[in-house]
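Hi U.,

Before I forget, here's the chain from the pilot set. I'm dumping it here mostly so it's searchable later in email.
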Amino acid sequence: SKSMIFILIYKGGNVMSSIPLSLIFILVSIALFIVMCYKGLSPIVASFVCTAIVSIASVNGFANAFFDTFAITTTGFMRYMILPFLSGATLGTLMNDTGCNQKIGTWLVKKAGPRFAPYTLAILTVILLLGGVMSYVFVVAYLSFGILKAANLPRVVGLTIMSGYMPIGMILLCGATTTQLIPTNFLGTTIYSGLNIGIICSIVNVILVTIYVEVLMRTCRKKGIGWDGLPGNEKEMEFKEEELPGLFTAILPVIIVVLGVLIMINVFKMDSTRAIVIAQTVGSIILLVMNWNRIKGNKAKVLSNGAHAALVPLVGSSLVVGFAGVVSETAAYHALTESITKMNINPYALTVIGTALCCAICADAMGGVSAFLTAMSPQLLASGANLNVIHKLTGISSATFDSLPHNGNVNISLQVFGLTHKEGYKHIFIVQTLFPCVYAAVGLIIALIFY
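Structure:
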């Protein structure tokens, strides 16, 4: 009866053990998420709707999936990221409202020229990620506004540069304490494993992304598309040249964040989250002390705006992570992980293919790497393969299909830059999905030939 089917779906039961049926629910929910975001609906609303749909396919039933798994996964991510987001957004807002971003931007454009100044965002992105600054999006985005305005380029250029060079600092080079930390727990490796492959793949990435950014900037200039401002920030960067702070005053907070995090993590062995929050908070305090009189309007309102700027990206990305958590409870997800364990192929090829598939269905690099290694690390350890290479290949392949439209970091980046999926995602897809597929193939070829 209809009531019996409803009870089985709501509470869980064999009705949702069908792999094809659960796969249909997953694909429909992802497709709907993309359509709703492209139509201008907030990712927050889209996440609720799509999670409700995919929760029907949960092997544990709709009730457990939607009210427990979704809520627990969402709040778990939010708990982990709320302080870095709040302190990062506050720092970025103060950089903007004190004229520091504008000073750095105009200085860089004068020194490097409008064509090359935007690439300083690439350097900053890599440095922040190697330093373990998880809230790098806020620092890079707000700093980009001054550079892009001075170079008369739209925000989508800054988004593309940051997104394209992000994998270098987070995954390809060694030392980052985010995704690269996960394989160490399963393989007994270190975050410095596979440096040679990482360097080669970094070079490939730089070439591909730089060519794409050059084409994008030239297209914007040819079409007369210049600086497009930030929606809802009418007073953004209204400083006259004589009102701007000195260069040292402007750049000091960024130096404090980068060096502070590096010292606290590597010298004092502090937890990375705490180090980031402390460094960003200290940077904000110094900003206030050195630029108190430059802040126009109500100081309390400026600080409030910084906190508010973090809330929408935080909530939106947390809900997207919650959606991925519900997907992991479906029969299709379990079937995928089981099929990966049964693949009888070269361990290096298995690592690339398996990690990419897990990241695709999780829509998250860290979740995908964790899922793959949880299932496959015993087999990989027994294979006799070079574990340092396995470590690096998991990171490289995690950068491929994790950046789908419902990925948390994608949504954070779009929201902080004030862009919609329709305006910015196509560029993210090219530099964070298509290009990573190229250098993942390069890394696999190196592993197959030399190891």
